[in-house]
TrEMBL record:
It is an enzyme of class 2 (transferase). Catalyzes the acyloin condensation reaction between C atoms 2 and 3 of pyruvate and glyceraldehyde 3-phosphate to yield 1-deoxy-D-xylulose-5-phosphate (DXP). It comes from the Bacteria. Homodimer. GO terms for molecular function: 1-deoxy-D-xylulose-5-phosphate synthase activity; magnesium ion binding; thiamine pyrophosphate binding. One of its GO terms (biological process) is terpenoid biosynthetic process. This is 1-deoxy-D-xylulose-5-phosphate synthase. Belongs to the transketolase family. DXPS subfamily. It catalyses: D-glyceraldehyde 3-phosphate + pyruvate + H(+) = 1-deoxy-D-xylulose 5-phosphate + CO2. Binds 1 Mg(2+) ion per subunit. The keyword Amino-acid biosynthesis does not apply. Keywords: Isoprene biosynthesis, Magnesium, Metal-binding, Thiamine biosynthesis, Thiamine pyrophosphate, Transferase. One of its GO terms (cellular component) is cytosol.
Amino acid sequence: MLATINSPQDVKKLALPQLSKLAGEIREFLIKNLSATGGHLAPNLGVVELTLALHYVYNSPEDKLIWDVGHQAYVHKMLTGRMGQFDTLRQYKGLCGYPKRNESEHDVWETGHSSTSLSAAMGMAIARDLKKEKSHVVAIIGDGALTGGMAFEAMNHMGHDGRNVTVILNDNEMSIAPNVGAMHNYLSKIRTNDGYKRAKEEVEYLLKRIPAVGGTMAKIAERLKDGLKYLLVSGILFEELGFTYLGPVDGHDFKALMEAMNQAKQTKGPVLIHVITKKGKGYAPAEDDSDTFHGVGMYKIESGETLKSEGPPSYTSVFGNTITKLAADDKRIVAITAAMPGGTGLKKFAQTFPDRFFDVGIAEQHATTLAAGIATQGLKPVFAVYSTFLQRGYDQLVHDVCRQNLNVVFAIDRAGLVGADGETHQGVFDIAYMRSIPNMTIMMPKDENELQHMLYTATCYDGPVAVRYPRGNGVGVPLDDVYKQLPIGKAEVLREGKGVAILAFGNMVPLAEKAADMLEAEGHKPMLVNARFAKPLDEELLLRLAKEGYHVVTVEEGAVQGGFGSAVLEWYAEHGCHDVVVELMGIPDFYVEHGSVNEQRQEVGLTAEDIAKKAHTLWPAGRKQA
Ligand SMILES: Cc1ncc(C[n+]2csc(CCOP(=O)(O)OP(=O)(O)O)c2C)c(N)n1
Ligand SMILES: CC(=O)[C@@H](O)[C@H](O)COP(=O)(O)O
Ligand SMILES: [Mg+2]
């Protein structure tokens, strides 16, 4: 049956039994294909019936379906003509792992970061009404994404504004890890308390039987109903915010789903359908461990065994071990995550120091200012966060942390190109977005051993400090003593040279070493520098290079505009060193799409060969020794 589905129109032709059969085939397809490509298996297995019901009841793309985070839009992509592309999922120039407007007219909103769907839906509903169109606008948001502040901002607007818009809350009790927060607790109460539903049905039955009488009786009945509604209606919180709450609905029951969606279509004003699903449904390993199977690499279908990555420890695991070790001696250390305990490597810290660990949900703004508040009281908060997600806390970084010069450590993971998640997740803006903030210090290690030292240095440092490190494995150097404090703002000269200096930032050092080897093979001898700090710069070294007639190549896995290289260029301009030629290498001014990191580096010109080539251009102009 799956092969007959080329568009949502094909779904609408099916009867309920056929839809159930199709759901089974979709699950088989996902489990089989993702065992080879990897991807967000558990989230998508949980929304098979929901997605089929959506395309059955609504008319995409006239009706707008907006997926929050969008990691669970594979089924939507399968039903909208892209089944044949799944062997290229999240691969270079292949199918994107998130909604992508240039892939299909059915992808009306691009996501990757959480909690944007309601704001986008409200925008589309306003535009629809101004253009006097009649479409339905539906946002599908998970219980995890609902912990994001933007979602509340949008609900606040929707409930006040009152126009027609539908929110489908896909509640599977999970974020990546088990979901957290008061909203989560509230949803659990609704989800699990059948008493509400039974009592509500009985009361509504009784109220309907009160003979319609005029005057006082009717008023009493109405007030009684409102009072009881307050007690009994499950989603009273949403009702009080101006939504019509429908639910809880079994998210794997087509009939119940379609009834609720059709009721929503007839209901005026904002509607919230509370759907209960099982993350990973239909594949036992994913049901049992939806955290691992949230975003999974290749796995063996029969056993669910995920293929362990070989080679050196990941930067993430070195961070997790190091911060846990440091916290054993330094009681000031507190660790914070925004719904990413696994991804940031904080699970061990959480188990070791449960009272010094805080998972605030998908709330990076809150996490940043929470850290600031903690720091005002003399403790040492460490906010572990992906580079791309810290973008959410930018004003808090400026206004709360740096302006007050507070002792907050930002452990910035996934800094640089991240590979399969592509343009919405590239960690390439943080150097630029932090560098211009007064009081900020930014460092990046050349390898996993130096990451230990930088983390220790950061916990000793007074003031806001960011240690950024890449996704994936280290370079394979031995880990020595953690307690090695680095001098702030000092670079490390790895190789002395002549004529050209290559200043490599962080994980670009190994590439720069290869480039230096190539250049030496041609008889050149570049100086090779592990920059270590993007702010403050090693001014003494920069001055030496100018005095000794060097030209400079800077290399960073971050936006060229405003990055480390820009800082060097600015420094030479400010200090009148106008004859030092500075060549900047980094991420150009465009969004780097999904693929492997190596393919992405090829695309942006960040390979060892590119570095060697760039340095080569500087030699003929190399100035004489000063
Ligand atoms: C701003 C932001 N922070 C963190 C993430 C990482 N992230 C991706 S999916 C996810 C959990 C989403 O949970 P939910 O919305 O319930 O969807 P489910 O996977 O349960 O279907 C998180 C934290 C993100 N995408 N965006
Ligand atoms: C959908 C989402 O934002 C996360 O699942 C993200 O894909 C995790 O990235 P890592 O795989 O780098 O942990
Ligand atoms: Mg969830």
